[in-house]
Design a protein that fits this description.
This protein is of the alpha+beta class. The chain has helices spanning 8-31, 33-39, 59-75, 107-117, 122-132, 142-145, 166-171, 245-250, 269-277, 288-296, 312-324, 332-339, 379-392; strands at 5-7, 41-42, 56-57, 83-85, 90-92, 98-100, 150-152, 156-164, 191-198, 204-216, 223-233, 236-239, 260-263, 281-284, 302-305, 328-331, 373-376. The protein has 13 helices and 17 strands. The protein is globular.
């Protein structure tokens, strides 16, 4: 078996390990306060997300992305050139020098390069280089190793969001509390997102979400991560989720359940009012990746976004996991337009509305999800929400 055709378990195991390595790197950077203060660089110009007044790029983002590119490309050479991410790999140090950040062949060479970024701070550079070259030791889920289906690496592309909800990562609030299992803000909202898609169809086929700050040990004050994965490829599906209280609650009869939607607080008052009048319970959280995780965990029925403020790197990984659960993620505008004036629209039509990852948005030069999105674990929810818009708008 060549690099071009591998066991799905081998490729997915690599993605899971890389997500854990990324989480470790994110925690390493946050644990060094002086180092962390040096690393934040405000994004400007075309790299800035217009939705936010300030958008930030950190060395954590760049290092994680480049580490995943390096390690995955080293293990599976045929995917080199098809790994995409949110960040460019340049960073400007306090002397105004622009440095191209790339993982080097040896730990020392990586440390020397990072020392230039960090204005000669050898200690900090060594810490980061050690994290970048860290050999991950973790127990792998038996359900993952059971995925013995062959997959062609040459057919895949990768989207990476190294740290989703960078603003929460920078703010660093550690003492937020959850409501009904969901965090509104805080480090818990930060996620590492890795997704693989079929380059021909554009559909997501594998996804990993890692929460670097999922649980804090109150004795050691150290953080532990949590990762989830899912596969939906050529009729084969599997995932890492187990039954939880949220899942059990989601199986209550429709008559006793109040449907729920997670939103960004920046959604318009008109959208909030429309959904409330239709009987939806509205929840709010920061981070697109985290909101999609709330849908995957079935804390809510759906994540709805009317704005064009997410990108392929945000949605590819979570979308693959949702597909493995029987759910999905559709272009909201296209879905509403298709449903307008139609009394009956079945589940089959949702497959044609799934967000694709092999092409830029039509009419745009970006990789943005320009029509907004609707992420769901139940096709019934994906059918009911557009009907709500059609009937009440």
């Amino acid at each position: 078996m060549t690099d071009t055709t591998v066991k799905m378990a081998d490729f997915l195991t690599s993605l899971v390990r890389l997500s854990e390595k990324a989480a470790h790197l994110a925690r390493t950077i946050r644990s060094e306060h002086t180092l962390f203060e040096l690393l934040v660089e405000e994004k400007t110009g075309t790299a800035k997300n217009k939705r936010f007044q300030q958008d930030f790029k950190t060395l954590a983002d760049v290092l994680i992305q480049e580490m995943i590119k390096h390690d995955l490309g080293k293990q599976f050479p045929s995917i080199v050139g098809h790994i995409h991410g949110e960040e460019d790999n340049t960073f400007t140090n306090q002397l105004g020098e622009t440095v191209t950040v790339q993982v080097q062949p040896s730990l020392q060479e990586t440390a020397d390069l990072l020392c230039t970024v960090l204005d000669g701070n050898k200690h900090a550079a060594a810490l980061l280089a050690e994290a970048v070259h860290w050999d991950v030791a973790m127990e792998i889920d038996e359900r993952l190793t059971a995925a013995t289906v062959d997959i062609s690496v040459e057919s895949l592309g990768i989207w990476i969001d190294p740290i989703d909800s960078t603003a929460e990562y920078i703010r660093g609030a550690e003492d937020e509390t959850a409501t009904d299992g969901m965090y509104h803000r805080g480090l818990q909202c930060c996620t590492v997102l890795i997704g693989a898609f079929d380059r021909e169809s554009g559909l997501p086929v594998m996804g990993v979400i890692n929460q670097p700050f999922a649980q804090k040990d109150q004795e050691t004050l150290s953080w532990k991560s949590r990762h989830l994965w899912g596969v939906c490829y050529n009729g084969y599906s599997c995932h890492s989720l187990t039954a939880t209280m949220a899942t059990e609650q989601s199986h209550q009869s429709e008559a006793s359940r109040v449907p729920s939607v997670v939103l960004s607080e920046s959604e318009s008052d008109d959208i909030k009012s429309l959904l409330s009048k239709a009987g939806y319970r509205l929840c709010y959280a920061n981070g697109a990746g985290y909101k999609m995780l709330c849908v995957i965990d079935r804390l809510v029925d759906a994540y709805l976004l009317t704005k064009s403020s997410t990108y392929k790197w945000d949605t590819c990984g979570p979308h693959a996991i949702l597909r493995s659960l029987g759910g999905g993620m559709v272009d909201l505008d296209a879905t509403i337009q298709l449903f307008t004036g139609k009394e009956e629209t079945g589940e089959a039509v949702l497959q044609n509305l799934q967000i694709k990852y092999n092409q830029r948005d039509s009419g745009s030069s970006t990789w943005g999800n320009m029509g907004g999105l609707l992420a769901y674990w139940s096709p019934a929810c994906a059918l009911n929400l557009p009907r709500t818009f059609c009937s009440l708008s």
